[in-house]
Design brief:
The chain is an alpha/beta fold. The protein folds into three domains: 235 residues, TIM Barrel; 80 residues, M1 Pyruvate Kinase, Domain 3, CATH 2.40.33; 118 residues, Pyruvate kinase, C-terminal domain (Pyruvate Kinase, Chain: A, domain 1), CATH 3.40.1380. The protein contains 16 helices and 21 strands. The strands form four sheets. The protein has an eight-stranded parallel β-barrel with strand order 1-2-3-12-13-14-15-16, surrounded by seven helices. A six-stranded mixed beta sheet has the order 6-5-9-8-7-11. β2, α2 and β3 form a beta-alpha-beta unit. α5 runs parallel beside α7. The model has no long low-confidence stretch (mean pLDDT 95).
């Protein structure tokens, strides 16, 4: 376990600036809870070395760190440009072709062959995060003819966004399937699917994971207008959600992103699904040792909205100050969590019948009891992780300690708000089990004499069935 006491977790992307054992250790000490491996870059050998380093650091330091594999998805890009880039001007025509040509100011290629079938006259085409804008005026054979709305320098391999277009490319590309196979072979904790559009995308990925006999959990990256139209069904199917504000802010009007961020966080909180806020959280720290005031406010607002985790991308992967970025983010999170009472004791309860309804109500009652007794901690047992997700959703001000005999869950829960995990695999009777867990928490300094804490577990056999027991204790 890292020394950080914050509840909101930090996902730090690893890359050239941070994929050494020394920096990984410093990032963990600074408050990183999950490391993101970006499969848009690097070979499987590169990622394997990094995974090994993360596991070595966890072993040596007794840390719990989760790993998130981020699949590239169907990224649509411009091909190679003459001299690395050329200027295109407002009002001119620009042809995008599916033929392999070296691009110039009049004609450029794209790696996405289906663009001629997907795009229609009138559709907007955005390039380089929306810095360049084109309007489609004709589609023929292997060419999309456009008029330049906003020009600039068009460089090789820049991304294309099609906000008005229903893209036919599958969410899981051939590259993604190979990368996923590798990730599952490494027992990765979470896998993020890029450019999710519908719940079937998530179902397909979950089926592949299940067939491989793995328990890796899925994060749906929300960055397409189509995903917003299907947001409830997507959240229902996935284990976690990422509000990927980069592409989302290009695909929909930028001023709509803050509202959608809040909506998605609320929906995830109500269904006990961890939610990550990503992109440009501390963008200025790629070059500078301190964040801007606006970035600090952005972090604070995401914490107050109810995000489970905040993500650093280039700041920790390629920036000049990766460790400082995590430190500054940790400081801001802790400051907000200390002062903002509004983030605690939410008690979400969607009124619908389910097979776990009684168990869900018991967990909510435990959280209410923790508040009413000013308990130091909620001490929960789980095999599947369900109790951990449900306890975290109520945002108890008491600490949440999760005991499990599921090794992978120890790191998976690193993405979930407020949860700290402990490995425990006893088959003792329930009284002996509770006694042993209390001793462990006292020995590790998490509980002191006189502390009140709340236990939840399942009886009569504590690794079977859902939570059905609630007990209040005082440390003798």
């Amino acid at each position: 376990m890292t020394s950080s006491t914050k509840r909101t977790k930090i996902v730090a992307t690893l890359g050239p600036a941070s994929n050494s054992k020394e920096v990984i250790t410093k990032l963990a000490e600074a408050g990183a809870n999950v490391f993101r491996l970006n499969f848009s870059h690097g070979t499987h050998d590169d990622h394997k070395k990094v995974i090994q380093m993360i596991r070595e650091v966890c072993e040596e330091k007794d840390y719990r760190i989760g790993m998130l594999q981020d699949l590239q998805g169907p990224k649509i890009r411009i091909g190679l440009m003459k001299d690395g880039g050329v200027e295109i001007k407002e009002g001119q025509k620009l042809i995008i072709t599916t033929e392999e040509v070296e691009g110039d100011a009049n004609r450029v290629s794209t790696v996405y062959k289906e663009i001629v079938n997907d795009v229609e006259v009138g559709d907007t085409i955005l390039i380089d995060d929306g810095n360049l804008e084109l309007k489609t005026i004709e589609v023929k054979d292997k060419e999309v003819v456009t008029e330049v709305v906003y020009g600039g320098v068009l460089k090789s391999r820049k991304g294309i966004n099609l906000p008005d277009t229903v893209v036919s490319a599958p969410s899981l590309t051939e590259k993604d399937l190979e990368d996923l196979k590798f990730g599952l072979s490494q027992d990765i904790d979470w896998v993020a699917l890029s450019f999710v559009r519908k719940p079937e995308d998530i179902i397909q990925l979950k089926d592949i994971i299940k067939e491989a006999g793995k328990n890796t959990k899925v994060v749906a990256k929300i960055e397409k207008p189509e995903a917003l139209r299907n947001i409830d069904a997507i959240i229902e199917e996935t284990a976690g959600v990422m509000v990927a504000r980069g592409d989302l802010g290009v695909e929909i009007p930028m001023h709509e992103v803050p509202i959608w961020q809040k909506k998605i966080v609320q929906k995830c909180n109500e269904l006990a699904k961890p939610v990550i806020i990503a992109t440009q959280m501390m963008e200025s720290m790629i070059e500078n040792p301190r964040p801007t005031r606006a970035e600090t406010n952005d972090i604070a607002n995401a914490v107050m909205d109810g995000a489970d985790a905040l993500m650093l991308s280039a700041e920790s992967a390629a920036g000049k100050y990766p460790v400082e970025a995590v430190q500054k983010m940790s400081e801001t999170i802790r400051a907000v969590e200390t002062e903002a009472e509004s983030i605690y004791n939410k008690y979400y309860d969607k009124q619908f019948e389910s097979s776990t309804r009684m168990n869900d109500l018991l967990i909510r009652a435990a959280c209410r009891l923790a508040e009413n007794t000013n308990a130091r901690a909620l001490v929960c047992m789980t095999k599947s992780g369900y109790t951990g997700f449900r306890t975290a959703m109520h945002r108890s001000k008491s600490e949440i300690y999760l005991f499990t005999n599921n090794h992978q869950l120890l790191n998976q829960m690193c993405l979930v708000w407020g949860v700290k995990t402990f490995y425990y695999d006893s088959q003792e009777n329930i009284d002996k089990t509770l006694e042993q867990m209390e001793k462990r928490l006292v020995d590790t300094g998490n509980l002191d004499k006189g502390d009140i804490f709340i236990n939840t577990a399942s009886m009569p056999q504590h690794w079977q069935g859902h939570t059905n027991m609630l007990k209040i204790h005082v440390v003798e």
